[in-house]
């Protein structure tokens, strides 16, 4: 079973992401990058499935040149090869543009299953996977907590408001996994060495047959008009527990008439 | 059509969801509210939608919408949008809402705006307010595509105000193509939740990674019970498997707005804050004086939850008993 994983490489979790008020885009240049933890879970799930059923795992990512570090990380975890969509022209893409580009790149790879993370950890719109599925013409199953393969169908445990749903879906398909589906493995030295020799194909939008007015800011349907900060909540008092912290909270509850 | 705002009416546990009603009320205030209701629904569903301001309901009760995930609904809605061309269509930021918007935005090549906290109709388009990056930003955005604008709306963004309307029902033919039956719902499993539910709770006691383990949530339940409230959690606690997902509060969990929120061993990550920071009063307990949660708290206690919470419980018992 061949699996394509769509995952992002994003500013490291130590970075507070900011939005540039001129370009109205997230500041991505000049900050340390890492494989999105959500993408690492998607890679992990793909590795577990192919370890059991055979096949390749190809990571597809669209991002700036700093993304290489995260791509190498996925390769070191065990992915077979990677595709990096690297092109100034795609900067400023909205979800729809991103999905068009990713779908065009995925179509060039062998796949029975595409695994995404339900949401990326930096922009979390959560709609890119469903859009990709539409462009690929395969059924989408999102919020997966568990995936198992039975011949040409997959069974998915899908998170729901009140518990979970058991979903049956024919392959080829796209599954978006939810956070906490697995504990991604850490790359071992052997994997890190092997990753250096693995192939990373680099594509531009033009390589994928996409015209300049379909991608990037020009192709975006969503336009950010203004970037601002919400009114800050007035912080109240903060005290340090000197042994009567519980009592003090009870006093506060009495003060606001909860008790 | 100018001023016509559609709402996708979502059902959960056989009831129209609260977020649906919030959106219908807002649509009625901003324009002419109409709803799309697909699949088997309880008898009073239509009246409920009318009560919050829907003037027309596009309806099919066909079971295909329940047996298969969103593909049949997306097919039907795309057809309806192409025929009736509403100005805007609103969906809840829920599992179903996101899947539908993903499909429709790609199929209609119109894009969509996610995580909408408010919107207004403007110059034949829409201007949406988005609490971006876990609500650390407040941006506005629009859609430049032609035709219907698709918005994914955050729960608790609008008040579900009643404005009883006369309602017309338009029966629509059900989607039936075989290609739409690729994702089948085999079984719905309800995980039993004990104790009071987060939805509608006036007081919420919430625990994070600082609780250290599943067993320590018992002390939060005791506290919640004394205050007549419910227990919530952060994603860290849910991902660790200590508590079920239904208890998760935040960006990817529930959005809550209780009178009182007590955050225990929670750092205050933006994704958590975005689900609870509009609570009326926030109390937090954290051993790290620099935890961001304190900047959002009315009353912050720097200290150890394992000392403070048992003392608070004792104190409440004493005061309530006396
Ligand atoms: C796309 C995306 C969506 C997300 N959605 C959500 C969401 O819906 N909800 C959510 O909650 N998170 C969400 N997160 C995760 C979020 O970023 C944080 O990781 C999470 O909220 C942290 O949970 P926490 O505060 O319990 O843990 P931590 O951040 O680890 O904080 C634990 C706190 O406990 C304190 N502590 C430890 N021991 C004690 C003690 N004995 N006494 C007192 N204090 C103690 C520590 O000082 C620390 O501040 C999301 C993340 C992403 C990327
Ligand atoms: N630039 C990208 N490169 C690769 N995958 C992406 C990219 N953007 C979004 N995705 C995929 O879509 C998912 C959801 O992203 P988002 O819509 O940003 O929440 C991610 O977890 C990835 O699986």
Task: Please provide a written account of the structure.
The complex is a heterodimer of chains A (259) and B (322). Chain A has 259 residues and is of the alpha/beta class. Helix content of chain A is 27%, strand content 27%. Chain A is built from 7 helices and 13 strands. In chain A, the strands form 2 sheets. Chain A has a 9-stranded mixed beta sheet with strand order 9-8-7-10-6-1-4-5-11, with helices on both faces. A two-stranded antiparallel ribbon of chain A has the order 2-3. In chain A, a hairpin with a 3-residue loop joins strand 8 (153-159) and strand 9. In chain A, helix 2 crosses helix 5 and helix 3 (95-107) crosses helix 4. The N and C termini of chain A lie far apart (60 Å). The model of chain A has no long low-confidence stretch (mean pLDDT 94). In chain B, helix 2 links the parallel strand 4 (32-38) and strand 5. Chain B has 322 residues and is α/β, with parallel strands linked by helices. Chain B has a 7-stranded parallel beta sheet with strand order 7-11-6-1-4-5-12, with helices on both faces. A 5-stranded parallel beta sheet of chain B has the order 15-14-16-17-18. Chain B is built from 10 helices and 18 strands. The model of chain B has no long low-confidence stretch (mean pLDDT 94). Chain B folds into 2 domains: 4-180, Rossmann fold; 198-319, Rossmann fold (3-Layer(aba) Sandwich). At the A-B interface, helix 3, helix 4, strand 7, strand 8 and strand 9 of A face helix 5, strand 7, helix 6, strand 10 and strand 13 of B. Strand 9 of chain A pairs antiparallel with strand 13 of chain B. The structure holds flavin-adenine dinucleotide and adenosine monophosphate. Adenosine monophosphate (AMP) binds next to helix 1, strand 4, helix 3, strand 6 and helix 4 of chain A.
